[in-house]
Amino acid sequence: MTATKNLTSIAEIYKTDKLEHGYTNIYEKYFESIRDQKLQILEIGIADGKSLLMWSDYFKNSTIIGIDIHKIDIKEKKLDRNNIKVHQGSQSDDKCINKLISQYGNFDIIIDDGSHLKKDVIKSFHLLFPYLNNDGLYVVEDMQTSYNHFFGGNPFDLKYSNSHMNFFKHLTDRLNYQEIANPFYTSNKYDAKITNVSFYHNLVFVRKGVNDKISKEVLKHSYENMKFNEKSSRTGNFFKYYIKYKIIYKTYTFVFMIFNLIKRLLLLRFYVTNQAFLLASKSNFALRCPLAARYSHSIDLILHFITVKFL
Question: Which one of the listed residues 21, 70, 87, 116 is annotated catalytic?
């Protein structure tokens, strides 16, 4: 009876909290075209089991694998279905995750609805993303915890803290790693492996895939080398463009890099903000956090002015 129902209708039957969070309409956009395929879907966090039942109905031909740190009574939760597999273990436990991988191999969809703690969210991604199939989706729910220090988030330094939201924000650079005009750039393990990162209210989607398109602007992370090769080969004027790109432009790049290193040292952003936050948390000097933020922001404005005015 539920085979032709959309995801929201099925969620209403089981009263899963994915409905009240507004996730089902978003999921439908991604999953509607693949719901009849034979997939392996892993969900971290079982709780009352309602979302597993929802996925079981929606993905009729797929295997739905659930993992929870607590022991789940399968019969009580009515999870004793042929296409549902339940496991007990921690999402950040290497042995537990490796056991899942050895049993099921790769996954097509991974949904993290587990502890929502920063350390677990990030470690689970590191452990499981390598075992996500190409064109597969890695989804993290309830990202609001990234703005809550009781979950390992940081509401006082939204831009530069090592929160799990910033972890996923930084993954957007992996989409364009080829374009980074930094000759000292060191490759990241997610370079060439991510084709899309999408953010919704409290929800993040990461699509895995081959992303190896060659840049038209930089050559091995060097804009100067790309332009030198283009101009000198087109005009035959080797000396002129060697001076321009290999000496003048590279000198500017080096100076700009040094400037940014100095800026980071002057800013002391991580140290000042984190220390102020710890002091506020432990000593109840809550006013110190906004002072630290204002101090950090003022330095940013000054350095931005110098950059625009003189560089």
Answer: 116
